[in-house]
Amino acid sequence: MNPVLQNILTIRSVRAFKKEQIPKEDLDTILLAGSYAPNGMGLQNWKFTAIQNPAIMEKVNETLRQTLLSIPIVAETHPYIVSLIEKANDKNANFLYYAPTYIIVSNLKDNGNSMPDCALAIGNMMLAAHSLGIGSCWLNQLPGLTHLPQVRELLNELDIPQDHIIYGSVVMGYSLNPPNPAAPRKDVIRVF
Ligand SMILES: Cc1cc2nc3c(=O)[nH]c(=O)nc-3n(C[C@H](O)[C@H](O)[C@H](O)COP(=O)(O)O)c2cc1C
To answer: Could you tell me the pTM of the whole model?
Structure first.
């Protein structure tokens, strides 16, 4: 099998990381791979904001925790959000899996291509990382909280444009554990 297909078939989400940081050169290559993803009308409206500074990582995590704590739990609150809010009660909770690198992918609000553009870019970055021996996991907490004031304030500090919202984010680092086997594939393919 060629190495590109091998890379696609062996990538798994990684949720436990070594403390060791990934080299800046690899981060640059990963971000470059993201920027070469196909995107609607070739407009490249996205922005990739990578964080490796431990103090900023801590600030992101604490903003996530405090924001989650500010959300009231009502009957309609989704059980996943309830579990995150419960986790946030622990002041040591880490929502970034203690990863050394975090990439936030933002794009124009109210633009139909923004989500697919960001998803393709994140896919490229995750595959590029895997090809360099670096593990990753898509994280969906931040996108769901973009509209809340504490999170917007954080995004301002990170120079994320006012007309952008977060469509996805991804943690990266060296995996602590060997990969789990992939779940069996569902029977979803039909060829006519
Ligand atoms: C849109 C999307 C959102 C996801 N959100 C999260 C998340 O918030 N937290 C997490 O741990 N994994 C998240 N994942 C990772 C999936 O859980 C994972 O890809 C899936 O269980 C399949 O496992 P695998 O990637 O190891 O094959 C997300 C993946 C995608 C594509």
So the answer is: 0.96
